[in-house]
Amino acid sequence: MRYDLVIFDNDGVLVDSERIANRVLAGFLTELGHPTTLEESVRDFMGSSVTRVREVVRARTGDSLPLTFEEVLHERTFAAFRRELLPVDGIDGVLDKLEAEGVPYCVASSGTHERIRVSLTKAGLYERFGEGLIFSAQDVARGKPDPDLFLHAAGTMGVPPGRCAVVEDSPLGLRAGVAAGMDVYGYAAMTPPDRLAAARERFTDMNALVGLLSS
């Protein structure tokens, strides 16, 4: 294994949540008078924090989303997660292999701590992380695509950025990992591969990841 730490994004990498979360987001934005399709939500907001969603809507329309936007969005998203969410196929095997090789891992996500906790718990992965290995955009001043979150995770784990691998499925996360000076592996199961062109490697089958990290 060439790395001393593997940092996983959460949505779409550990838990198969992107389609669910973006469906809820698109529906809510449309309800609020900002018509958005699932495809547009994935294109524009996948990997984003709620703060960035607010900023994009304001920049495009001049309108501000309601003060309750985040609260209502989280309630609807969590309800959908509890009904539908599953782990990404193959991720348990990846984590098993990292543990067997003694390679530390953690999660660094644009989601809130509550969202990460809810999703990992529903997917049966929370016990593999626990709060000590969970890093959220809430922990830093600037979320993805800025490198702050990944640098915070690496610093807390005591690993230099150059010894870290990032596993991401969004262009915003990819930009953040590259800006942090880390090797990024782009999971292109849902994202068009060309949008992850700056990744060290791109892959569509999670079972292939450990081999890529070791080669």
From TrEMBL:
Cofactor(s) in the UniProt record: Mg(2+)
InterPro entries membership: Beta-PGM-like, HAD-like_sf, HAD-SF_hydro_IA, HAD_sf, PGP-like_dom2
Enzyme Commission numbers on file: 3.1.3.-
Keywords: Hydrolase, Magnesium, Metal-binding
Any one GO molecular-function label of the UniProt entry: hydrolase activity
Database matches in Gene3D superfamilies: HAD superfamily/HAD-like (3.40.50.1000), Putative phosphatase, domain 2 (1.10.150.240)
EC category: hydrolase
Entries under Pfam families matching the protein: Hydrolase
Protein family according to the UniProt entry: Belongs to the HAD-like hydrolase superfamily. CbbY/CbbZ/Gph/YieH family.
PANTHER family (UniProt xref): 6-PHOSPHOGLUCONATE PHOSPHATASE
Name of the protein described by the UniProt record: HAD family hydrolase
